[in-house]
Amino acid sequence: MFWYRIVDWFNDLSERNRIVRNFNKSARDAFILGAAPTLLEARITKGDSSYKHTFSKWNSGFRIKAMSGRALSRDEMITIGNVILSNSVLIRQLVALGWDTLEVHDDTGFKGLKWPLRKFIMELPE
Fold this sequence. Notes:
The chain is of the alpha+beta class. It has one domain. The chain contains three helices and four strands, in the order αββααββ. Strands 1-2-3-4 form a four-stranded mixed sheet. A hairpin with a 5-residue loop joins strand 3 and strand 4. The two termini are 27 Å apart.
């Protein structure tokens, strides 16, 4: 029983890192091909404990940083967040793997926005 939990923890960690790598590769490819105006980069952060849900894990924030070289307006960050939140498959993957917070930041400071992922999944227990 104890070993199963250790193996399960490493599998979840591996899967979480794979999601981040795949997101970053897709974002890089979209930027290179001109499909996206800004290069986006994802990483794992602490998250917001007030957004916690049943499946939340440690380091439950999924941060998207827009590598624009300038400060983004609030509307630009909302647009990036809405694009991510409209991808229901990605949001379900994030929630299932223990993320509870989506963060969008620019690359010139500490300014950013965040959303509770549970609000974008129907019927998710608190």
